[in-house]
Input
Amino acid sequence: MSDIFDKIIDGSIPSYKVYEDDNVLAFLDLTQATPGHTLVVPKKHVADIFEYDDELAAQVLGVLPKIAQAIKASDKHIVGLNIINNNGEYAGQSVFHSHFHLLPRYEDDGFDI
Ligand code: 5GP
Output
């Protein structure tokens, strides 16, 4: 079954791409909780982290630091960054294609986590 992130991955829904390789796509979240809020998703359709095998874990988790570093380097006002990964409806997941939120933080951004 195709979900909204599958459509972003295949290009049928537009997105602002931040990073792409053979296995992973990163793009700006539609709802910018803070400026630069980015989602990192595996191209392989897995609903959540409970479906990862070691290979997929290495592919997705392995790129998080360099994407986080690129986001931080893009704006001198970024003073921190949260990585958030919701798994399951009860954990706040709303799109059931696994994804990691990279949330840049700014002084006095008022974001309460
Ligand atoms: P979750 O609540 O599942 O952890 O996060 C899902 C995220 O996907 C939300 O932050 C939401 O704004 C984002 N999102 C939902 N639909 C779209 C879309 O069509 N394009 C983009 N770029 N982000 C989306």
